[in-house]
């Protein structure tokens, strides 16, 4: 555990909790892509099946349980409790175009051809693109609430910090996981355009809106 | 040395 990994995890946790609290407090999930949230729930479910097979640390187990619990709570709020506020008309990204290729790739490129390992690989690949329905929704409506942009910022920051963590681990532990690294780089790149808008607009007190 | 399973990251 190094400082980049820890702050990365905490940044991820912050993102998840910001989103959940935003929806809960405002009693509205307007502007939030339910599809992205379902994909993240799927990511956590398929990745953390090892909760049942191996114990790494109390920290590891606790965080996994929190991530899974919060992601299902978010999906529940969007599709059940606050369904009336869900903006389904703008959430039109075709997720099968992500799931099918990602599933195929997980079968072809993995560390070990075993069920748990393929599901882990699937979750890594899927996570790298799971935010696309949300970004697509923002590009479609041309704007995002400021609190939603904070959520996206922390989610992107988490992946960027993990990249530094992997560089650290490579130098100091000789550890590298090519699948996680390549997917992590892809994931971070997807946030670059958003980061630019976040820094140039949101941090200067303006609302994030895209030119028509 | 490359990856070790189980995966220790989140």
From TrEMBL, chain A:
Cellular component, GO annotation: COPI-coated vesicle membrane; endoplasmic reticulum membrane; Golgi membrane
InterPro entries: ER_ret_rcpt
Protein name listed in UniProt: ER lumen protein-retaining receptor
Key word Transmembrane present: yes
Segments crossing the lipid bilayer: 65-82, 119-139, 151-172, 178-199
GO MF annotation list: ER retention sequence binding
Coiled-coil stretches noted in the UniProt entry, renumbered to this chain: none
Localization per Swiss-Prot or TrEMBL: Cytoplasmic vesicle, COPI-coated vesicle membrane; Endoplasmic reticulum membrane; Golgi apparatus membrane
Topological category with respect to the lipid bilayer: Multi-pass membrane protein
Domain of life of the native organism: Eukaryota
GO biological process, one term: vesicle-mediated transport
Lineage, opening ranks: Eukaryota, Metazoa, Chordata, Craniata, Vertebrata
Family: Belongs to the ERD2 family.
Keyword Transport: yes
Main location per the UniProt record: membrane
